[in-house]
């Protein structure tokens, strides 16, 4: 067993203008997980974001949606991790992933940030790349046959068929979070990746 996850961070941009955009896939999953853990988000200014708290036995489980823009996500993650004395290994970041098609998802620990500004900032704030990432596929404009620039693409809502695929992935992610909260990443990975073939 590995170190169980104690802080789950959904990445996105705050405000109604961004709510339905691809870049906010991490927020969408975080909202569902708050429901699953029977908690709700409240603004905590000292942590630069919306925080939801739940208990698992004697431990706190924290959910965070940074209130900064994507490229400053580390400010909130760093503040919360320091306050609760969490290691990078106890942090799970939920984010949109251009390199995976809608309907695909990958769980991994560590690695680079592939130009994802939210991940880059979190890595800097935690001083380590060793946090876990749930990469929610949104596709890439090129692989989806779109002429859009990436920056424009991530700030638009998915097309209806893509949205359905992303929602199915979010449900699969919800199903494996209990294993991650228990520190059983092998089980979580097996369950999660078995759906990628479809």
Characteristic terms for this protein:
seven-stranded mixed beta sheet, Rossmann fold, 21% strand, 6 helices, cytoplasm, globular
Written account of the structure:
- Keywords: Cytoplasm, Hydrolase, RNA-binding, tRNA-binding.
- The record marks 96 as: Stabilizes the basic form of H active site to accept a proton.
- The record marks 13 as: Discriminates between blocked and unblocked aminoacyl-tRNA.
- One of its GO terms (biological process) is rescue of stalled ribosome.
- TRNA binds at residues 18, 69, 71, 117.
- The chain is of the alpha/beta class and 198 residues long.
- It has a single domain, classed as Peptidyl-tRNA hydrolase (Rossmann fold), CATH 3.40.50.
- The protein is built from six helices and seven strands.
- It has a seven-stranded mixed beta sheet with strand order 2-3-4-1-5-7-6, with helices on both faces.
- α2 packs parallel to α3.
- The protein is globular and about 50 Å long.
- The two termini are 28 Å apart.
- The mean pLDDT is 94.
Q: Summed up, what is this model?
A:
One of its GO terms (biological process) is protein quality control for misfolded or incompletely synthesized proteins. The chain is of the alpha/beta class.
- State the end-to-end distance: 28 Å
Radius of gyration: 15 Å
- CATH-assigned fold name: Rossmann fold
Relative strand content: 15-25%
Strand order of the largest sheet: 2-3-4-1-5-7-6
Overall tally of domains: 1
Helix count from the secondary structure assignment? 6
The low-pLDDT segments are none
The averaged pLDDT comes out at 94
Structural class: alpha/beta
Protein name: Peptidyl-tRNA hydrolase
Organism: Achromobacter arsenitoxydans SY8
Pfam family, one: Pept_tRNA_hydro
Family: Belongs to the PTH family.
């Amino acid at each position: 067993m590995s170190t169980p996850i104690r802080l789950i961070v959904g990445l996105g941009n705050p405000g109604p203008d961004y709510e339905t955009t691809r870049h906010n896939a991490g927020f969408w999953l975080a909202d569902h997980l708050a429901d699953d853990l029977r908690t709700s988000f409240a603004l905590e200014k000292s942590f630069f974001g919306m925080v939801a708290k739940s208990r698992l036995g004697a431990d706190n489980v924290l959910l965070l949606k940074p209130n900064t823009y994507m490229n400053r996500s580390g400010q909130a993650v760093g503040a919360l991790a320091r306050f609760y004395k969490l290691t990078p290994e106890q942090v799970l970041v939920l984010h949109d992933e251009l390199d995976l098609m809608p309907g695909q998802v990958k769980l991994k620990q560590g690695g680079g940030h592939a130009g994802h500004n939210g991940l880059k900032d979190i890595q800097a704030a935690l001083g380590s790349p060793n946090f876990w990432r749930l990469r929610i596929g949104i596709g890439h404009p090129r692989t989806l046959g779109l002429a859009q620039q990436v920056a424009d693409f991530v700030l638009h809502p998915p097309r209806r068929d893509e949205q359905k695929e992303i929602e199915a992935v979010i449900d699969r992610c919800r199903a494996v979070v209990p294993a991650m909260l228990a520190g059983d990443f092998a089980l979580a990975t097996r369950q999660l990746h078995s759906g990628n073939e479809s």
